[in-house]
Each structure stands twice: as C-alpha cells, then as structure tokens.
Amino acid sequence: MPTWMQAGLWGLLGGGALVLGALVAWFLRVPQVVIASVMAFGSGVLISAVAFDLMAEAADTGGLPATAVGFVGGALAYLAANSALARRGARHRKRSGTNPTETMPSEDQASGSGAAIAIGALLDGVPESVVLGMGLLSGGTVSASVLAAVFISNVPEGLSSAAGMKRSGRSARYVFGVWLGIAVISGLSALIGYAALGGAPPELVAVITAVAAGAILTMIADTMIPEAFEKTNLWTGVIATLGFLVAFAIERAR
Predict the structure, then answer these.
(1) What is the pLDDT of residue 108?
(2) Which of 26, 17, 40, 11 minimizes the C-alpha distance to 231?
(3) Which of 34, 104, 168, 220 is the 20 to 30 Å CA partner of 91?
C-alpha cells in the first residue's frame, strides 16, 4: 500500500475515535465522572506525545530556536481561533454537563452556534491528524505513542461533545454528520500532511511539527483539562499522570 494512503488511513482511524465516542454517548448513558476521567487520562497521553514525540523530534531536526517559534506560534494561532469560535457559541463544545452556564447552546439560543461547534471540533482534531501523517515521513511507520494519544483522547472528546449536543437538542443527523465529517477530514489532513511535506526541508517539517504541538498543548489546557476537572476534581492530576505514564511506556517500548 502506498505510504500516502497509509497516512490517510491512520488519520481516519484517529478521527474515527470521535465517531466511536459519539455512538457511545448517543445510545448509552455514561456517567459524567467516567467521561471526565477518560478525558483526564487522554490529556496525560497527549502531553506525553507532545513532549517526547513531537517537540523532541522537532528540536533534534530543526534546532531549538525554530522549534520554540513554531511552538509558541501554534499556541497563539489556536488561541486566536478558539477565542473567535467561543464568541460564536463553541466555548463549551467538550462539555456534557447539565449546568446551564457551561453547556452548549442550542441553535435557538445562539444562531450559528452549531457551525461554530463543528468548526471548533475540527480545530481540535486537525493538528493531531497532520502530525500522524508527518510521522510517516521519517521512518515509514506511524508512531504508536502518537496514534495511541490521538485515539485515546478522541474517544472522550467525541463522547462528551456528542452528549452535550444531544442535550442541547441537536439531531442525530447533525451530531453524526459532524463527527463523520471530521473523521474524513482527519484522514485527508494526515494524507496532506504527508504528501505536501514529502520533499520539504527537515527544518520546515520541524517547525510545522512544533506548530501542531503548540496547538495541541493549548487545546489540552484550554478545553480538555477544564472539562475533566469539573467531575474528577483533585483526582485530575493523578489520572492525567497515569495517562502520561502509559504513553511514555509505549514510546520507550518502540
């Protein structure tokens, strides 16, 4: 199978975890503490992948100054996009709770919020998918730790967001249309990440990797950990630590 096709399929697998989470949320009533616990665990897994896979590789390839610029640039880009979407009703797109001040608004409550939530979910998922595709550039095989991080973090994201969408009155067509669409775009993002950068200088690949890492870490701090803390409280750090340890063990076992 061509490597570019492998990149697309790995990205589709990572994005498919969102659909899996949405299916669970739509047909089963999952306790919010369970959702929050998996979200905290996934946060730890992603933090490990950012540190040991993305940033370490970017710094080794492109040097610390270029990596630092890309990393901060990715964080600021995510912040700007997330702030714009928050004003359109996507601030609590990962929330599934019943607190009216911290749930997704319905379309009647905030016109255009449905599109903002969908775009926000896409904003969260694209950097991860691009990284999966770019990971094939160096060794021809996807990083097991990065793939595990993306998949484990996407399941609770899809679960929590879909539960919130259902609670706000959005239809099954909308919910599954969003997640299936994002899964497909995730696959395309991974494919494009591989194809577009196949002949790029290692320094450019390093900078783009750092940009994605900065966006992912900002997403974790801005959306995933706050969602997890809502229900797991003081256990959030311990659960995230366990997720970090699991991902670190996978990375070391390669």
Answers:
(1) 46
(2) 40
(3) 34
